[in-house]
Amino acid sequence: MRGEQGAKHHHQPEYLPVSQEELESLGIDRPDIILVSGDAYLDHPASATTLLGRSLWDAGYTVAVIPQPDIRNDETFTIFGPPNLFFSVSAGSMDSMVAHYTPARKRRHEDAFSPGGRLLRPDRATLVYTDLIHRIYPDSPIVIGGVEASLRRFAHYDYWSDRIRQSLLADAPADLLIFGMGEQQIISLAEDVVSGKNVKDVHDISGTCWKIAPKKWEEKKEELNGEILEIPSFTQVSNDPLQYIQSHVLISDEQNPFQGRIVLQRHPKTLIIQNPPALPLSTERLDTIYDLPYKRKAHPSYTDPIPALESIRFSVTSHRGCFGNCSFCALAMHQGKIIQSRSHDSVIREIERIARMKEFRGTISDIGGPSANMYGDWCGRWESDGACSERECTTCKSRRTGISKYLSLLSDALAVPGVKHVFIGSGLRYDLIPSDPDIMQQICSHVSGQLKVAPEHISQSVTDLMNKPGPDVFDSFRERFEEVQKRKHPRQYIIPYLMAGHPGCTIQNMIELAEYLKDHYLYTEQVQDFTPTPMTTSTCMYATGINPKTGAKVHVPKGDEKRIQRALLSWRDPAGYDLVREGLRQAGRDDLIGNGPECLIGRSKGQAEHTPGNKKKGKSGRVIGRMTTGSRHQDQ
User: Fold this and answer.
1) Which helix H or strand E contains 629, and what residues bound it?
2) What was the pLDDT predicted at 633?
């Protein structure tokens, strides 16, 4: 009987089995569910495969993992045979195309989620894995999920092929797509299959998409509960930018788990139906998931280190969700806008477990989430109606800040025996930090030397399109930060994330940003180029040249202009001197080319005016210090 073995196995294994020998050592002949992933297997709560696998095991189902199967060798897919219930397939922690290619569409040289950093997952990994499994096991149900599937669940603009692609569920021979954080959905699906349902016929789980043949739709829709919203079809959005914009707006409006409608989109051979998003997890449920016995190690079968593990090993997730609504970010489409926070005690228990690890040297690298200081934020509407669609949570007075809870959490984590340092590594929403100097002082006490924030730009017209705070907010924050530095030794520095090439950003805007950095004696060492990833508002602008919120035309930098914009943000880098000069001349800013103190670059190649990273005294005479940006592969 399907699931019969799983019902007897509540005890968590040391590691989820990745071989038949490991499976049999647990007294299991065949797993209920096989998780196939484009990532190496890290037994860490930051890994979706591990979260799902251990959650399923906790629910009584046996699970095996096939990490990074070799697509040239069918045997890597057949080591366990077919599962009792279904295959679950994911490209991994990132969209495989983002993992493999730079914003300039050049092949990356390393995959941080692979042993030795080798490029082991295929392009469009979810589709490739699913095709191979379906060919080998045509009768086995297949479920797809993860970031790649979640954000490609409708017809979407694909930057790497520069065209509109079908829903991944329409392209892949899969039976169901899970979007968002999938613990609830995959356990509910396992329960349904054990009860005798076919995965193809499971159409009532929130947070899932399913498909149906057009000829069967009229009969099926009579059975559905809830209003059905039909959005423009794949054919329509492929041929008409205005239809694509309408589709994007309608999809975005229906991502409320309490009020969202069933959404239908027609494709040439099938209909894609999205159920409303899954309800947010309760604090108690989150605590249960993160209290499971994660090893925080790579599976012992690996001989090469996995680069991603080093930065996350001793980090702790405190919450999920983000209400920031940045235009270039798809978090609202994946994790949702509602903040789901773990309890204080659960986080401390996790840190106590970390402190007992022999490999731990005393530093918790991060306690946070998409934005660290959203922990504990709460609004009464979130529990019954979801986030408001007509106003921003960031500026709404109904939202209660959890900053005191977050700072208390950091303080108590530092008091755990064996812990020497507790840092904020996941970045802060600086516009949400209250003006109280004591709060800034406490935050700075948990900064190793560099505080990560994301102004992205300082031109008001650009930050408006990004849905980010304007330059005045950043200036105010920076001044408060510098005030704290007067009493600190050694001093700390702000690391801002800055972006080039965003829709609406012109060469003149980038010159404005470069002048701002120069005037404030700041400099960037790394720059993030805008990458159009599926389901974001910025990608909609990039694909159509129109702002979906206003209908106004938007300038879209491409080709040489994107390279010029990037070079302007790193104007002191000798490799970009020619591009900087070209940009300045195109914008009619020859006054910035020369050897004077107001110039960005000299008239001939040579050493830059200042050495990047040197501390300079600002106009007030105080030391400002340097700003750098870290590299980001993907904001999803």
Assistant:
1) none
2) 35
Q: Is residue 295 part of a domain?
A: no
Supply angle C-alpha 533, 255, 315, rounded to 5. 65
Residue with tokens 């159409």: 203
- Structural domains of the chain, count: 3
| Domain assignment of residue 287, yes or no | no
State the Cα–Cα distance between residues 217 and 211, nearest whole angstrom.
10
pLDDT tens digits for range 511-530: 999 999 888 877 776 678 99
Q: For residue 271, what are the CA distances in angstroms to 210, 263, 280?
A: 8, 10, 27
Give the Cα separation of 517 and 474 in Å (integer): 13
Residue with tokens 């007509």: 390
What tokens appear for 157 in the block? 């603009």
**Dist. CA 256–CA 386, nearest whole Å:** 6
Residue 291, Cα to own-chain centre: how many angstroms?
23
| Dist. CA 71–CA 94, nearest whole Å | 19
Same domain, 14 and 153: yes
494: CB partners within 8 A, 6+ apart:
450, 451, 453, 478, 481, 625, 627
The torsion defined by the Cα of 186, 187, 190 and 195, in degrees rounded to 10, comes to: -140
The three-class DSSP label of residue 578 is helix
Output the CA torsion sign for 205, 209, 210, 214.
positive
Q: Read off the tokens for 410.
A: 């950091």
Q: What are phi and psi of 586, to 5 degrees?
A: -60, -35
Q: Both tokens of residue 169? A: 């569920």
* Residue 276 DSSP label: P
The residue assigned the tokens 């934005």 is 371
pLDDT tens, 47-62? 999 999 999 999 999 9
- Looking at residue 403, its amino acid is I
Task: Record the tokens describing residue 107, joined without a space.
Answer: 């092949």
Which pair of tokens denotes residue 293?
């016995």
* % helix, strand, coil for the chain, step of 5: 35, 15, 50
DSSP string, 19-50: SHHHHHHTT-SS-SEEEEESS--EESTT-HHH
Cα dihedral sign, 330-455-107-88: negative
Residues of the chain above pLDDT 90, percent? 82
The domain boundary residue, chosen from 274, 295, 330: 274
How far does CA 413 lie from the centroid of its chain?
Answer: 25
> Is 90 exceeded by the pLDDT of residue 375?
yes
Strands 33-37 and 86-90, bridge-based pairing: parallel
Q: Looking at the predicted structure, is the pLDDT value of residue 91 above 80?
A: yes
> Which residues, 6+ apart, have CB-to-CB distance to 72 below 8 Å?
none
How many angstroms separate the CA atoms of 76 and 425, rounded? Answer: 37
Q: Which helix (H) or strand (E) holds 387?
A: none
Residue 599 domain-assigned (yes or no): yes
CA–CA distances in Å: residue 585 to residues 517, 591, 601, 605: 20, 9, 12, 16
Burial of 572 (0-12, 13-18, 19+ CB in 10 A): buried
Residue with token string 């750098």: 628
Residue numbers of the domain that contains 379: 314-423
C-alpha–C-alpha distance, residues 569 and 578, integer Å: 13
Cα separation, 259 vs 226, whole angstroms: 10
Q: Are residues 337 and 417 in the same domain?
A: yes
In a domain, 296, yes or no: no
